[in-house]
Amino acid sequence: MSPASAAIDAVSVAGLEAAGATLTPAVVGSMGLTDLLAWVAIAAFLVALILRWQGVPEPARHLAMGAWLTFGVFWLTMVPYYYYDVQSPLQTVLALAALPLCAYTGYLLWDGRDSLFLLTKAVAFMGLIYLPAETIPVVRTWLIETTAVQTHYGMELLGHSPGINEGANGYQSRFDFDSDETVTGRTTYIILACTGLGSMAIFGGLVAAVKAPFKRKAIAFAMAIGVIWFLNLVRNVFIGLASPWGWFQQEWLVSFMTTYMGAEESRVSFLVAHNYIAQSLSIVALVGITYLLVKILPEILEPLEDVLFVLTGNEYDLFEALGKDEVRADGGPDQQ
Q1: Are 35 and 134 in contact (CB under 8 A)?
Q2: To pair with 187 at 20 to 30 A between CA atoms, which of 153, 201, 211, 291?
């Protein structure tokens, strides 16, 4: 989403948590502060884009600057959740970094870097993909429970059939392992982040924002969604089995996690599988999917160049670095 928030979503798509724990931030409720900030930011992005399209660039630039700042504050409100509930150092650091990065992006827009309107457009589309699913109950229920069924099927392929019952979040998404038979006595359940929707929204927003022939955009979108769905399913199965069966309950890991990370002993396997292994591999997956997407839709290099500029302060020509021919901004008929 923002230069930092894209990474946050990319590494947080596996949202399995130990049963009985509260998984949503305390501020999230019926249009709580976090949801409100997200909606305000996305709405402001969209209005800014409409104003620019209507030929009023200065108000558009100022509104976009405010939208980026609001978006950064949104990620700041997520820090307590990532730190205390998820206990993820990586997500905590990224959420903290999002505010200054978003504020800097807004400043660059205000200062005249109009190319950032393309990145703004991508973030707006990301929000339009993700936020309705998060806030519309019937969509959220379908996504969570469908993912739970698919994950259970993956477990069955590996010889585990615990069944599914109601999780602490109220959905039929909890894997019903017998606590007396498992190593840790814990199990996991699926939340919205486990559906892979966050990563799908990131790539969907990038594809939707750039100008290119519809055929290539459709192929790129289908490829990204398919790869994310498969990798997300593999990750869910991995974490869903690692937690109850204690795959990472080695003595030295338990000692380190409980002493220095404040973890409960029975949650060590979950935390290692989810916060360290899965999240690290998610970054690798993000890079890999981006590479495949560029092969089909090199136009997405343009907003990625601005992301790198915000992160480093240096200009990059990714088209030249990756050996890509220049792509017409209007995706004209000369592009296949």
Answers
A1: yes
A2: 201
Q: What is the pLDDT of residues 104-131, one digit of tens each?
A: 999 999 999 999 999 999 999 999 999 8
Residue-wise pLDDT for 249-283, tens only, equals 999 999 999 998 888 899 999 999 998 999 899 99
Contacts of 93 (CB under 8 A, 6+ apart): none
Q: Give me the amino acid identity at 76.
A: L
Residue 321 has pLDDT above 80, yes or no: no
Condensed to tens digits (0 to 9), the pLDDT of residues 228-257 reads: 999 999 999 999 999 999 999 999 999 999
Helix (H) or strand (E) holding 164: strand 164-166
Main-chain dihedrals φ then ψ at residue 173, nearest 5 degrees: -145, 5
Residue pair 14/279 in contact by the 8 Å Cβ criterion: yes
Place of tokens 């059939």: 161
Mean pLDDT over 216-226 rounds to 97
Per-residue pLDDT band for 34 (boundaries 50, 70, 90) equals confident
Give the span between the Cα atoms of 120 and 241, in whole angstroms.
Answer: 39
CA distance 328 to 319: 12
Catalytic residue among 52, 140, 186, 235: 235
3-state secondary structure of 175: strand
Angle at 209 between CA 67 and CA 10, to 5 degrees: 75
Distance CA 89, CA 30 (A): 28
CA nearest to 17, candidates 201, 192, 162, 147: 192
Q: What is the DSSP string of 25-51?
A: -TT-STT-HHHHHHHHHHHHHHHHHHH
Percent of the chain with pLDDT over 90: 73
Active site residue 216: no
Active-site residue identified among 52, 61, 174, 194: 194
Question: Which one, of 189, 269, 172, lies nearest residue 17 by Cα?
Answer: 189
Catalytic site includes residue 174: no
As to burial, measured by CB atoms within 10 angstroms (0-12 exposed, 13-18 middle, 19+ buried), residue 137 is: exposed
